């Protein structure tokens, strides 16, 4: 703490040599000290981004209206990580719970990050009737779930009463083969070290109904909040050429202020 001198009662004037310069009470930061401080900030930021938080962009509409295409979120990578011997008692490690929104590696497509809501944990019995989810015999109240398409898909809406097939959009052969082994009394039963997940936009979500369970080891983390949201075309994630990407970057620069969804900035993901 810096102690400021008290105001003196008397002011004494004295002559000073002409060549005497006023002294600077605050030492100036050297270049080396500045670079050291900057390096510390960069290392801390890199550590947080690498091990604690990670930025993701939402590419599809499967989680609408909770998450929209073009939402950019920070994901807490540490919360669902395996507890370490030394930091375990200090860090808030835990397993994913029912209704948690999680980011995970797709069990179907290698290297693809997916975001869904956990509906079932190990041991849970799940089934749908006319699009309504029942867990362990109880009807779920899901204010976040949407049904935007007025069509009827017996496999999707009455899962798992109808066997999976190509005509209902099930393309995963492994899931088709093991599907019946997980059914008990008309319910799908979540096995150990696995989770059953669905998107909030139920009629368009490509989720556990179509490719099976999420292995515990595939879970990356939990989205914490939206740090930026920009109006983005639904097919933008499929644009992989350099020209397409540069074109969209240019579009962002031009329309940053008028197409940013400012009301979604810093919104918590729940």
What can you see in these coordinates?
By secondary structure, the protein is an alpha+beta fold. The protein has one domain (49-268): Umud Fragment, subunit A (Ribbon). It has helices at residues 31-52, 154-157, 173-178, 208-211, 242-259, and strands spanning 53-57, 71-76, 101-105, 113-120, 125-129, 132-135, 138-139, 183-184, 187-189, 194-198, 214-215, 219-229, 267-268. Strands 1, 2, 3, 4, 10, 11, 12 and 13 form an eight-stranded antiparallel β-sheet that branches. A five-stranded antiparallel β-sheet has the order 7-6-5-9-8, with no helix packed on it. β5 and β6 (132-135) form a beta hairpin. The longest helix has 22 residues, at 31-52. The protein is globular, with a radius of gyration of 28 Å.
Q: What best-fitting shape do the alpha-carbon axes yield?
A: globular
In total, how many domains does the architecture comprise? 1
What is the CATH domain class? Mainly Beta
Sheet having the most strands: 8 strands, antiparallel
Low-confidence stretches: 1-16
